[in-house]
Write a structure and sequence with these properties.
Chain lengths: 497, 575
């Protein structure tokens, strides 16, 4: 306390510029805060959350858990086995949603999954079965299907978010029982997460395509790719995915829109086991060709690794750290450490960026996918400074990439010592998004993303940048403020306001 | 990305004298504080030919102002983080000049970091917590609007830095929570609504440049502290530290939390030999705990409470000087209207003759209830004659920027009023009433005071403090001048860091205008030191040259105002 009366080495000023000018004139070094007013009406909630006695410790614990989480690939198995998923049950990206409000790419992916599971023979039949069931998005059955004689017996469709089952899915994120999943485990806590296997780019299920080639590829993935990878992982033992993520950031990847180095490093880890397993040479060559030819293969391992990290922070009362950011093509939803599995949703933005030949902005669907879990855990758009090579892919510059990462430090609570960025002198990635920081600064998380076609069946149309709607954060703030007020009880001096 | 929309760019007519070109612009996401915006708007309005200027954030209130000026509301609408710029001008060259002027005044020192270049991965910190993560500053100065300052202040404490909260309009239970957090972390919360802090001669917020001295202040009143600083500096001593605690610190719920902490800090400061606590009268229980705390300290503590039946700050200053063995009690600086033939020479208070001719000095000691009244017949001294020329309005209109100066003036006027009523045979003192301009003066009262504190919360929402922005007071001066019931105009003018760079430059023309019609007597309570950037002597002379009586002592200024009220035709004041 007596520091106050020692010669002042430095002062921070927040607010009126002329007060800072006066201090500079008096010879005092001043750090000025580039302050902006929060949205009108949020001031009271921001104050209540700021004054929550639990908050500092809770955020510290949430961030500590997030940073401490490890991630190892421990197995590859069908969703049926991993999750007990039954025929007719589908998981999808983002917050809960039913068929009626589902966007084109999500509908397309669901149609493809119905075809893949053999529930219907044609896209029309699949669509009418899905539409008749009219999944409510609550994960519960809503009645018998009106469409008779599906090829396989299935009750009405059930939809639930991947996040509700502890996993993640890129883009539409649709998972059905016969699809194979990567299973990841945090060796420290024993917690697990999962993600589907990546199909490659272009006309693929996750972008809403469901043509015959899409279904054929899914069959091969279930019949060849999955089992081959399973045997390799089981032979090699757990693969340290977090270590690969740390290395890929030093090799020009950011873990969301660029996964090239990560993919090759994964292949390097698995190759000895793949060979030792004595796989059929044709099958082995197909698998290696498929993995090495798909620069995004490793995204589906970065995502569940990030889910392990972000999920580690979940369930810490009083914490304002974001644990989930996810989109279903219609809504953007977030969850926070202090508010359990409650979703805070608002209409998703449409990404801006570059388009594949023949497509333009009018073809793009609103933001979709669970892949924003990468930004939630501090990579992807947050590590943009590590990936100057793709700055142009998302319509920016290398300097802009550095600035984008720089700004994310203003809304996060920690720097991840395990994931560093060479171009920033090995500064740790900005990690642990604080809801109150987002609302106070107006700086929205920067998300790198692919763009799906608006119309079901189209597939990918481009890649670019997107931000969440600010309303997700103001809603979460309101909920955190209510909890803070409940926790604080009646206040001294309330009657004297 | 700036969204620029201009309309009516073509001249309506070559004969027209009217401005016929509007510049309308919304700069989304560009934020500036209210003081910066006021200075920028003033600079743009100063460009020849530019009219109907608005440079403001897109709050609801400001959008109303925009439309009231005849501009269309912004489309899409602007928010409080968006800068709105509107003005009219005769041609494009003027428009360009105005925009250049605007840019210069919005970024007066260039980029807002001292180091200039900002590395791209280290943008300017957007929160107090972010700033404190980059530096080990022990102190933060927060002056963001109202409630929005609470998260900033909390972050400061959580990063181990004490905090000055200039902001007001903060609920008291938030204040208590912040001060509890500070206690837990052995830090100090100075505020909310703390205008004045001095640490080792460095002034934060509104602070006067005093010479160094052995006295440290604990102030629940910013202008109270400034008045003491000014008087002590004039008397040749000075201030070591002034720790503000916020105007509500000594209320029952806040319970003097920061005052206790500040006393402990100053008790450990070897170079502080005398501590002075300035506050409105505390809650009795709080007063007891403070007195008990003070009695345990190894150095004297003078408790200066501002209110009825309490010594004035001037008397407190004299008591401080006596405690420090500064004798004799000084004559406080004051300046007579230099252009007024009726005024006796009262140059700088260096002689007894000056004292007797001075309306403020003549009765100031009366203000201390602890002393017998020392009266002088005001009609035999200069100002009495000055008064005869004035209209017979008997309202003293007080327009204050300092809350404590206003409160003290009210107390002094009450006392003088009681005395005068006694002198005229009323036989009893009466309570001072705040009048409204509509209420006629009471027939038996020699004067009625009507004082307004423009620094009050209700006047500062969405606009700079009146020590910086004279707009409301300039309007009020003109209204007072036009109101025949007003017999004397009493103003405070506070100098020092943080305050307007040249208050006389704005207020003197208004005073001149007010006196042009009917020689309305004007008294100025001028709070400042010789070292203040505005120049005490220069400011004082400017007011005196305009015909005002100028006093460094606020109590003397109030007394002078009472003495200057015309004893005119009506009421019990006839002699």
């Amino acid at each position: 306390m007596s520091d106050l009366l020692k010669p002042m080495p430095h002062i921070v000023t927040t607010g009126i510029a002329t007060f800072a000018d006066d201090l500079v004139e008096q010879g005092l070094p001043v750090t000025r805060v580039d302050w902006r007013p929060p949205p009108p009406g949020t001031e009271g909630d921001l104050a209540d959350v700021a004054l929550d006695a639990r908050r500092v410790d809770a955020n510290e614990m949430a961030v500590r858990r997030m940073l401490a989480a490890g991630a190892e690939l421990v197995d590859v198995r069908p969703a049926r086995e991993v999750l007990g998923l039954e025929v007719g049950q589908f998981l999808h990206a983002g917050p809960p949603i039913g068929w009626e409000r589902a966007s084109g790419p999500l509908r397309g992916a669901l149609i493809g999954a119905v075809l893949f599971e053999g529930i219907a023979e044609t896209p029309d039949a699949a669509e009418s079965w899905l539409g008749a069931g009219a999944g409510t998005g609550t994960g519960t059955s809503t009645g018998a299907p009106s469409e008779p004689s599906p090829l396989r017996h299935a009750h009405s469709p059930e939809l639930a978010p991947c996040h509700s089952r502890g996993g993640v899915g890129p883009m539409a994120g649709v998972v059905s029982p016969s699809m194979w999943l990567f299973e990841l485990r945090d060796p420290n806590s024993g917690r697990t997460s999962w993600c589907s296997l990546n199909e490659g780019l272009g006309k693929v299920l996750r972008y809403g395509a469901y043509g015959p080639d899409v279904i054929t590829r899914l069959r091969w993935m279930a019949e060849v790719l999955g089992p081959v990878l399973q045997r390799a992982v089981r032979r090699s033992g757990p693969v340290d995915v977090k270590a690969i993520i740390a290395q890929m950031l030093h090799m020009g990847d950011e873990g969301h829109n660029r996964n090239r180095a990560g993919t090759l490093m994964l292949l390097r880890e698995l190759l000895p086991a793949l060979i030792e397993n004595g796989e059929d040479a044709k099958a082995l060559a197909d698998v290696v060709r498929f993995v090495s030819g798909n620069d995004h293969f490793f995204l589906n391992l970065v995502m569940p690794a990030c889910k392990l990290a972000a999920g580690a922070a979940a369930g810490v009362a009083g914490s304002s750290v974001v644990t989930v950011m996810a989109r279903n093509g219609t809504d953007f939803g977030i969850q926070t450490a202090g508010t359990g599995d409650r979703w805070f949703t608002a209409p998703a933005h449409t990404p801006e960026g570059l388009f594949l030949a023949g497509y333009g902005p009018e073809d793009a669907n609103p933001d979709i996918g669970d892949s924003a879990i990468t930004e939630t855990a501090g990579v992807g758009g947050f590590a943009m400074a590590a990936a100057p090579a793709i700055a142009r892919l998302v319509g920016g510059t290398a300097a802009g990439a550095v600035a984008a990462t720089g700004l994310m430090y203003e809304i996060t609570l920690a720097e991840n010592p395990a994931l560093t960025i060479p171009a920033l002198d090995f500064r740790g990635t900005p990690t642990g998004i604080d809801v109150t920081r987002v609302v106070r600064t107006g700086v929205l998380p920067q998300i790198n993303t692919g763009m799906a076609g608006r119309v079901a069946g189209t597939g990918q149309v481009g890649a670019g940048l997107v931000t969440p709607p600010a309303e997700c954060f103001t809603q979460a703030l309101t909920a955190l403020a209510e909890l803070a007020r409940d926790a604080a009880g009646p206040q001294d001096g309330d009657d004297l306001r | 990305m700036p969204v620029v929309a201009s309309e009516g760019r073509q001249a309506l007519s070559h004969q027209s004298h009217l401005s016929h070109q509007s510049h309308l612009e919304v700069r989304r996401g560009e934020y500036h504080d209210s003081v910066t915006l006021m200075l920028a708007a003033r600079a743009v309005a100063g460009v020849a030919g530019v009219e109907r200027v608005l440079v403001a954030m897109g709050t609801e209130l400001n959008i109303e102002l925009l439309t009231a000026l005849g501009y269309p509301p912004p489309r899409p609408t602007a928010g409080p983080a968006d800068l709105m710029i509107a003005f009219t001008c005769p041609d494009e060259a003027t428009e360009a000049t105005a925009l250049t002027t605007l840019t210069a005044s919005l970024t007066p020192g260039g980029p807002i970091t001292a180091s200039g270049h900002q590395p791209p991965d280290r943008p300017l910190p957007r929160t107090t917590g972010s700033a404190l993560g980059r530096t080990s500053a022990p102190l933060t100065l927060i002056s963001t609007p109202g409630l929005a300052s609470v998260p900033e202040a909390m972050e400061s404490l959580q990063h181990g830095a004490s905090v000055v909260i200039f902001s007001d309009n903060i609920p008291i239970h938030h204040e208590i929570r912040l001060k509890e957090e500070a206690r837990r972390r052995s830090l100090l919360v100075m505020g909310p609504d703390c205008g004045t802090v001095v640490l080792q001669g460095i002034g934060l917020g509104f602070a006067n440049a005093t010479r160094p001295g052995p006295i440290s202040l604990v102030a629940a009143s910013g202008t109270g502290a400034q008045q003491l600083m000014s008087l002590l500096d004039a008397a040749g001593t000075g201030i070591r530290h002034c720790l503000g605690v916020g105007g509500r610190d000594l209320t029952e719920p806040v319970a003097g939390r920061s005052t206790h902490a500040a006393l402990d800090i100053l008790a450990e400061d070897e170079e502080t030999t005398l501590i002075v606590l300035i506050s409105k009268p505390p809650h009795p229980a709080v007063a007891r705990s403070i007195e008990e705390h003070a009695s345990r300290l190894p150095k004297p503590v003078i408790l200066a409470f501002i209110g009825p039946d309490q010594p004035t700050l001037t008397t407190t200053a004299e008591r401080i000087l006596a405690t420090l063995h500064h004798t004799p009690t000084p004559t406080w600086p004051h300046w007579a209207p230099s252009g007024d033939d009726d005024a006796r020479a009262v140059s700088d208070g260096s002689g007894q003759a000056a004292r007797e001719s001075d309306p403020g000095r003549a009765a100031a000691p009366d203000a201390d209830p602890g002393r017998p009244p020392r009266t002088a017949d005001p009609d035999r001294t200069g100002p009495g004659q000055a008064a005869q020329e004035a209209d017979p309005g008997r309202t003293i209109r007080g327009l204050f920027s300092g809350g404590t100066l206003c409160a003290e003036a009210e107390v002094v006027l009450t006392r003088v009023l009681a005395e005068q009523l006694g002198g005229w045979g009323e036989g009893e003192s009466r309570k001072l009433k705040k009048t409204t301009p509509q209420a006629p003066p009471e027939p038996h009262a020699p004067f009625t005071p009507h004082l307004t504190d423009f620094g009050d919360d209700t006047y500062t929402r969405g606009r700079p403090h009146p020590m910086i922005d004279n707009t409301l007071r300039l309007r009020a001066i003109a209204e007072a001048a036009a109101d025949p019931r007003v017999g004397v105009l009493l103003l405070d003018v506070v100098l020092g860091r943080g305050a307007h760079p040249d208050p006389a430059g704005e207020l003197v023309p208004a005073v001149v205008a007010a006196r042009a019609e009917r020689r309305l007597p004007v008294v100025v309570s001028l709070c400042g030191t010789a070292g203040d950037p505005q120049g005490l002597e220069r400011q004082a002379r400017a007011f005196a040259d305009a015909g005002a009586w100028v006093y460094l002592s606020n109590a003397e200024a109030a007394t002078a105002a009472a003495r200057l009220v015309p004893r005119g035709r009506s009421g019990g004041g006839d002699e």
